[in-house]
Amino acid sequence: MLSTLNDIKQGMTIIYNGEPHVVLKANFVRMQQRKPVMQTKMRNVITNKVVEYSFKPGERVEEADITRKKVNFLYKAGDEFVFMDIADYEQTPMKSEMVGDKANFLKEGCEVQFVVFDNRPINLELPPKMEFKVITTMDAVKGDTSGRVLKQATIETGHTIGVPLFIKEGDTIRINTESGEYVERV
User: Fold this and answer.
1) pLDDT of 59-78, one tens digit each?
2) Domain check: are 50 and 91 in the same one?
């Protein structure tokens, strides 16, 4: 669907330079003796790069047809992660470069979402918070309690994060997958 300058809104996904972009900010600006423009700040859905662009009157933007599909993570084979569609049990591989840092929070059987554009997965969305078992951590040092002190802990995926001193091996903790930080003990 083609939209005009006034139709661009925050949160909308549009096609810009042939790729889908999410509009982070949209500001209609009208200056003296100049034509009005729509200043936008957009994030590329595929590469996550942020771009700023001012749309001029008469420019048409196409709304991107983005869908989300629930999948389960099955296993990692070489440099590919294999996912299974929950609806039709079809298996889809995704390259390590596309998964990126999200691989730190993928455990077998966890449910995630594919972001699909042109019938191909272009990105992966994790749940905002996930639970993991602590495999190894150091013991707290007596007297090391001034302020917010963190120690390193390795979770079941092999990733290391900072946790409070009271966390022990075998504890289950909840982690914010967007920031990679400890949230709470479960």
Assistant:
1) 888 888 888 899 999 999 88
2) no
